[in-house]
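User: Hey, quick favor. My workstation is busy. Could you predict this chain's structure for me?
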Amino acid sequence: MGQSFKRKVFYIPGYDPIHPRRYRELYRAESAAQAAISGYDIHLSAKTGPGGYGWFVDSEIDGRSTRAEFEVMLWSDLVRASMRSGILATNGAEWERQRRIIDPAFEGGRLREAYPAISAAAEAAVARLAPKAGGGPVEIEAETSFAAADVIFRTLFSIPIEDRMARQVFEEFKTYQRSQPVVNLAAFFSLPSWVPRPFSRRTRRSAEVIRRLITELTDKRAEALAAGTAPNDLATKIMTTKDPITGQLFSASEMVDQVAIFFLAGHETSASALSWALYLMATHPDYQEKVAREGAALGPQARFEDLRALRVTRDVFRETLRLYPPVPMMVIEAAQAERFRGRDVASGSQVVLSPWHLHRHMRLWDNPDGFDPERWHSENGKHCQRAAYIHFLRVRGSAPGRVLRCLRGYCCSRDCVRLINLHP
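Assistant: No problem, here it is.
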């Protein structure tokens, strides 16, 4: 037997909630198939001792013994130490603590207070689009991305997207997303120098700039709070809300984490939903006209309570989220053992949900692939809304942002078609 070669492999899958054992089983199956093709022996064994989840791989290749130690470094493992707040990154008691602090900022009355900022962002989006009307094609996703970012900055920090710092954050997020197609929040947080980084230099630089800019925004808000000059927006509400049990506020670092999460979780999903809504109205001019008439009837000075009159607008946006859910697939973990469709699902099992397929299920929906906003008033539509409809990511921790994103969609859809005719 020749010399035994050893190596240690760190696998960083990025933003992926699948349990590490799933990667081991995938490796077991694929490596066995490859070994059979290549004609060598391979054996997997459990990893023991300290460290993260992993396994050992022993093989005999051309008379040489090799051993590889695999350690899976999941997104949650990488960010948990430095991202102590991020409500989408935590579970258990820590998650409960965050919800106690964040939820009051999104209660019904508070959303009413945020409405003027959302409406102003919608009007600004129309003002940017208006000069382009009658010209050549417009890349609507770029416009909705800008509008979604504008809403976030106006509601969080009372600054428009034209503000120097807000614009910098937006531009850096675009750079980050272009250089890192699969969003990996671990890039935003410092890791030990020995951890391999599957990110380009450009991606790392953008992540560092984003965190620095958000830190500057939250620091300025803390100064305004101390001076008594802070506006009454979402950032102020969250930074001044104490945990009713412990009496503690978010730390400065935790607030930076929350802002990053709000932007990453709410920006692209809102922009995607609005883009598809405008596209569907462009391809269905009858509904575009109906939404435009609703918006015109309310006028530019519409109040928060007037939104309940936007019946067609609500149905169009709801149908958009059915046909083109911003989160088309998700993986969740069973919190307890269940019996599901004749199968036992053990606690901790990974369950794949696909809103895209569920929303187009032929056995559930009438005319599943058709655009029909009126369906929501039929018996089938009412039943499916309760039993087979998952619009924005509907997991715990997402409810506040989900309501805010729908409100953004109503306002922007209403104002865009009220003043501008859309064509595919």
